Amino acid sequence: MQEKETNSQNPDDMMKLNDLNKTPDPLSSTGKMPVLFLGHGSPMNAIAENEFVDGFRNIGKSIPKPDAILCISAHWETRGTFVTAMEQPETIHDFGGFPKELYDLQYPAPGSPELAERIKSLITTTEIESDYKWGLDHGAWSVIKHLYPKADVPVVQMSLDYYKKAGNHYDLMKELTSLRNNGILIIGSGNMVHNLGLVAWDKFDSDNFAFDWALEASEKMKKFILSGDHKNLIDYQSHGKAFELAIPTPEHYLPLLYVMALKEENEDVKLFNDKAVAGSITMTSVKIG
Hints:
Blueprint: H1 17-22, E1 35-39, H2 51-62, E2 68-78, E3 81-84, H3 100-104, H4 113-122, E4 128-131, H5 138-147, E5 155-161, H6 166-174, E6 184-190, H7 212-227, H8 230-234, H9 241-246, H10 254-260, E7 269-272, E8 276-277, E9 281-282, E10 285-288
Parallel strand pairs: 1-6, 2-5, 2-6, 3-4
Antiparallel strand pairs: 1-10, 7-10, 8-9
Helix pairs in contact: 2-5, 6-10
């Protein structure tokens, strides 16, 4: 888990909230953008050629090109909620033990201080602070690079407050629904089933290998997603042993709740990359709209 506590506001570079609310919306108005939950899996997917990477690329080709991206990644946990507000976020290599090729990879997408300010103005139930130190972690860039390989779409990350309950995360995202009409692609990046402690390392090359408990949890999660049963998705801790093993810590699961919170009535929901890896990880991804 990448954890960071930060208090990195830069008052000289920020507009006051009251002033922002008096200015025209700097973001464009467009048709409603879809919302994505991407099962990012291993950082090696950033440089791999496999069916999951193909799935990310195909989704990128099938949706309108956004004006900017808001990404909620499993790999940025903080005390409080922050948004990256720099002009040029760095590429963070927040992992260890991988080939040099992966560490050499850069994803130089610009940031969007304007989007960061817009997010802060829309969320009124909790304080959102600007961050100037984080950048883009691999939960963001390792998948976004396949959607937009030219790194020509601005990206803002929003952190996960590890003090908030699941329902608080879901409710917070409800306040950002209007961004979908402003050309913003919202991405949650994690894994619905994610237990690194129980990975079957000898089964990484086995196609769609899942332990029984992982399969049970995954099937129930997908049933809740497709039926619109958000209450049971939020109450994931009430579903017994399979869910306890699938979600030993919540950070990879919570981005799914951010995405589901944005689903509107009668919107289409599509699953893709719907396979398990090494017994205890699922790459299942979701497209709404």
